[in-house]
Amino acid sequence: MLLAAPASADDTAPHRTAVEQSVPALGQLPSLTLPKPAARTSRAAGVEGAAAAVVPAKPRLDMDGDGYSDTMYRAINGKVYIEPSTGADSHEYTIYGSDEQYKDFVAPGDLDGNGRPEFLTLSATGTLSLFQSQSDTDSGYATWSGKGWQMYNKLVAAGDLNGDGRGDMLARTPSGELYLYAANGAVDSNPFRSRVKVGNGWGAYDQLVGANDVTGDGIGDLFTRTPAGELYFYAGTGSTAKPFAGRVKVGNGWNGYNQIIAVDDANNDGFGDLLARTTAGAMYYYESTGTGSFLSRTGGGTGWNVASLFVGAGGSPDFGKNEMFGLDTKGTLFWYYPKNNGLFAARQQVSDTGGWGKANITFASSLNADGRGELMEVYAGTLYVEGYPVGNGWGVYNSLVGPGDLSGDGKGDLLARTTGGTLYLYRGNGTGTGFASRITVGGGWNAYNKLVGAGDYNGDGLTDLLARTTGGTLYLYPGTGVASKPFKSRVSIGGGWNTYKKLAAPGDINGDGKADLVGVDGKGDLYRYTSTGTGKFSARARVGGGWGTYYNLY
Prior knowledge:
Blueprint: E1 2-3, E2 19-20, E3 71-75, E4 80-83, E5 91-93, E6 104-109, E7 118-122, E8 128-132, E9 142-146, E10 154-159, E11 168-172, E12 178-181, E13 196-199, E14 207-212, E15 221-225, E16 231-234, E17 248-251, E18 257-264, E19 273-278, E20 283-286, E21 298-301, E22 307-310, E23 324-328, E24 333-336, E25 348-349, E26 361-364, E27 374-379, E28 382-385, E29 388-391, E30 397-404, E31 413-418, E32 423-426, E33 439-442, E34 448-452, E35 465-469, E36 474-477, E37 491-494, E38 500-507, E39 516-521, E40 526-529, E41 541-544, E42 550-553
Antiparallel strand pairs: 1-2, 3-4, 3-22, 4-5, 6-7, 7-8, 8-9, 10-11, 11-12, 12-13, 14-15, 15-16, 16-17, 18-19, 19-20, 20-21, 23-24, 23-42, 24-25, 26-27, 27-28, 28-29, 30-31, 31-32, 32-33, 34-35, 35-36, 36-37, 38-39, 39-40, 40-41
């Protein structure tokens, strides 16, 4: 991303001296430790309630052909990697046909029976594309694409749910409706049959993990987690009309993990297993008993906070902003990126010393397909996005906020408030080069001295907004995904927020896919508020001192 320095008072347009924004440093690749597979045996005989697998479920992401699913992830540097199930070193995986950053990946398995796994990519604007993997290093080009999938906040590869030997998919709406998309065997056209509604109330879970076959009957099963950390097991029935039996609680304390990841059958006993990652980046392996419960966890590797997105992870994906700028009191701009552990990497200077003064800038969630935030400046009434002018007349606004997609089309939007307190919505065009005509949100927004947001705070997958009053009360405005009325009624988060001289929304900084918040108090200490996914935040955690050097954070 190129940053542009603002102009002096004598200039008619900002100086746009190009400054290359760094890519987050990957560092050392992580390691994965899974059990060494033994000759296939069945522990089912020794486990009450378990059944020996007559036809063991096939691995869904076996990229190297060894019979076991591998781990695919996107790292913080934006590249996709494969971690072989053997524990060999990670290697880069090339996805052809697009330079965009995909919002999510889904791996249903080998849909056409040719021995190679298929996987799906989801764009931020709702295009779902199917790739037939060519090798363990490249994808080939997409053979099918379909639009409109932004209507869901979570897609899950669930394994074979109807007993036909093909991997199926689940899709959840923001209102909590769950639908089954059964595979039809096609890979060059729409690979799914018409959706079938599974039920309502699935928004109660912040993670949905399609674990393939856990019980050894050849049918896909599902794990779900509540924000409070309760883990539930849904056994597959093999019926399209009613694909799951009633839920069974199988554990507590699973909110200690920021991602739960399906790994299929890692030890060759016929039962699907799980991986779970801590905020510190440690991976743990959970070996299935065949009944939906697990043996005691064992170590599964370290260094996994370099992964920003896992294929098969249970958490809802986020998109648009996972970084932050700081403009110091001398007018120098610095850039921070999170390490998926609640902390930021060391700052990087991205402008000339003092080159930005007290520029009127905003750092919005991504307005294009690259998944990274956009630095915006208003100068002499002109709005510049990444140094390029996109329109005039923006000087009437005293606050600009780019929290993400507010209209339901997957494209990043912009909110603008006048000095009189009227708030307007500008729908983005998806390229960052312009906006549609403004839509009035409402009046009275000058009651707030700070508007911030970068993603979803209440767990429904829709973009939200945070607003602080002059008295220090922080309110959540839940998003609706509808441009004509982008917010529901406000909900109070609590008081005392005027203790922070600066508030910023950097997106997800602890790797769980939920939008977080940071604030700097009068002493210059930075505090992190981790989202619970319920519209509330966990108790604050001090990140460090010395942040009083900044004029503002974005």
